[in-house]
Design a protein that fits this description.
- It is elongated and about 85 Å long.
- It is an alpha/beta fold.
- Strands 2-1-3-4-5-11 form a six-stranded parallel sheet, with helices on both faces. It has a six-stranded mixed sheet with strand order 7-6-8-9-10-12, with helices on both faces.
- It folds into three domains: 8-51, no CATH class; 60-166 and 297-325, 3-Layer(aba) Sandwich (Rossmann fold), CATH 3.40.50.2300; 169-296, Rossmann fold.
- The chain has helices at 8-15, 19-26, 34-46, 53-60, 76-91, 105-115, 129-133, 138-145, 169-182, 198-212, 227-240, 251-263, 281-285, 297-313, and strands spanning 65-70, 95-100, 122-125, 150-153, 163-167, 188-192, 220-223, 245-248, 273-277, 291-294, 321-324, 327-329.
- The protein has 14 helices and twelve strands.
């Protein structure tokens, strides 16, 4: 009996109570005494009972599943966000179905279409690079119009009316650039593989504004699309320009900048100081460890999930944008 799953009706028969009593006890109904709840839950474990989620979903029109769409499975930041989403969802009694758009609008749209066919209660997502490059957003609004709530994080679009969770990318990069300026850097390079995304644009604007406050300082910018081209491009810049500071728009770019500058013989941070984003394991274990702007990815994931679940409980709430504060974590790639 222990190895074979039993039905709700069979569990009720064993306990000699009604099916309704068992169901309410398992769902912590106020109508059932604590003693009965404990008795039912203990028996459920003993006799290997687990609820039929599909049947529950058909009855309640809820799956207790949240869809998650991540643009890039390789990015440490998105993995940290995903951990925050999974933990908060689990704590609140939800499972997650994780999908990857691989920075493709076509994949993102197809995934939204699939998830909105009654497979999930709501969706947490960051827009893919291609959607932001081409200004494509109607597919998200169409999903929301079907009654599937969406929470956007990190990469957002103001034309999408939904809850959003972000950091202040402009302010974070502005402050990081000021740190390099105060340390004596005069030729600061901004490097980014995400220049066409909302966050990439805001991070560039923060860098640019910090330099504009010092009229003696000029911009040095390297935008790129593919990492296979990045090494040769940065090599050329470092050989031809007197760069003494680098702001990298994400973690992988920051780590790559350390490796490339080191191979060219530059001393870090004595000759070139470098600041990146994310604060993942790569940053902690690079040589030297990368000074980073921590986006608190797990917190972004947690807040995004709690906001979505709040909306599932009350769809009359006003849409809101939540800003998660960042932290500059100084390590070995910047001067004291």
């Amino acid at each position: 009996m222990k190895n074979k799953k039993i039905t709700l009706k069979e569990l009720a028969a064993i306990l000699k109570v009604s099916v309704s009593t068992v169901s309410k006890a398992l769902n912590d109904s106020y109508e059932i005494s604590e003693a009965t709840k404990k008795k039912v839950k203990t028996a459920a474990i003993k006799y290997n009972y687990s609820p039929n989620l599909l049947a529950q979903g058909l009855k309640t029109k809820r799956t207790k599943i949240l869809g998650v769409i991540i643009p890039d499975m390789r990015a440490p930041f998105f993995i940290r966000v995903l951990r925050g989403i999974e933990r908060e969802a689990s704590d609140q009694g939800y499972n997650i179905l994780t999908c990857f758009s691989n920075e493709s609008f076509t994949k993102e749209k197809a995934t939204l279409d699939m998830l909105s066919q009654g497979n999930v209660d709501g969706i947490i997502m960051a827009l893919c690079k291609e959607s932001q490059e081409q200004g494509l957003y109607m597919h998200v609004n169409e999903t929301i119009s079907k009654g599937i709530p969406v929470t956007l994080f990190d990469r957002i679009d103001d034309r999408i009316k939904c809850d959003k969770v972000v950091i202040n990318d402009f302010e974070s990069t502005y402050n990081a650039t000021k740190v390099l300026i105060k340390s004596g850097a005069k030729n600061i390079l901004f490097i980014s593989p995400i220049s066409t995304t909302s966050i990439g644009k805001d991070r560039y604007r923060g860098y640019s504004y910090a330099l504009s406050e010092r009229k003696s300082l000029s911009e040095h910018v390297l935008h790129f699309e593919e990492y296979k081209d990045f090494s040769s491009d940065l090599n050329a810049v470092l050989k031809s320009e007197k760069i003494d500071g680098i702001i990298a728009a994400n973690e992988l770019t920051g780590i790559s900048a350390i490796n490339i500058a080191s191979r060219l013989g530059f001393k870090i941070p004595e000759e070139i100081s470098i600041i990146g984003f994310t604060n993942g394991l790569l940053s902690m274990n690079s040589n030297p460890p990368l000074t980073t702007i921590s986006q608190h990815g797990k917190d972004i994931g947690k807040v995004s999930t709690s906001k979505l679940i709040e909306r599932l409980k009350n769809d009359k709430l006003e849409y809101a944008t939540t800003v998660i504060e960042t932290t500059l974590i100084k390590r070995g790639t910047t001067k004291n």
